[in-house]
Write a structure and sequence with these properties.
- This is Enzyme related to lactoylglutathione lyase.
- This protein is of the alpha+beta class.
- The protein is built from two helices and eight strands, in the order βαββββαβββ.
- An eight-stranded mixed sheet has the order 2-3-4-1-5-8-7-6, with helices on one face.
Length: 118
């Protein structure tokens, strides 16, 4: 393998229709209060995992949960997966705080994500 290293799935985002209702369920499930909370996003950090709730699937229009693999070089990893047959859905872009994300689909249309912190 060449290119960037993959550090595993550490982030999973879930599209939700009712942020307050979903927040209550995930708070009960995870046993912790959210570490990030706003009208556009609620995020929980539990044992090295980040679980995010995105109302309406966010600007990317998620319709199902998306797992994000943390990588050291998002552009290199995106090039590797597309060379292997993946299709870019959302090109790499900054989402704040130096964090960059991208999504792609596998040959069956499953949406997968990449995340790179600065």
């Amino acid at each position: 393998m060449t290119g960037s290293s993959t550090q595993g799935i550490k982030t999973v985002l879930h599209p939700v229709s009712d942020l307050a209702a979903a927040k209550a369920v995930y708070t009960a499930l995870l046993g912790v209060q959210p570490q990030a909370e706003g009208p556009y996003y609620v995020g929980f950090d539990v044992e090295g995992q980040h679980i995010g709730l995105v109302p309406g699937g966010g600007p990317q229009g998620m319709t199902s949960p998306v797992a994000y693999w943390h990588v050291s070089d998002i552009e290199a990893k995106l090039a590797e997966v597309t060379a292997a047959g993946a299709t870019v859905q959302e090109p790499a872009h900054e989402v704040g705080g130096g964090r960059r994300v991208a999504t792609f689909t596998d040959p069956d249309g499953n949406v997968l994500g990449l995340l790179q912190d600065r």
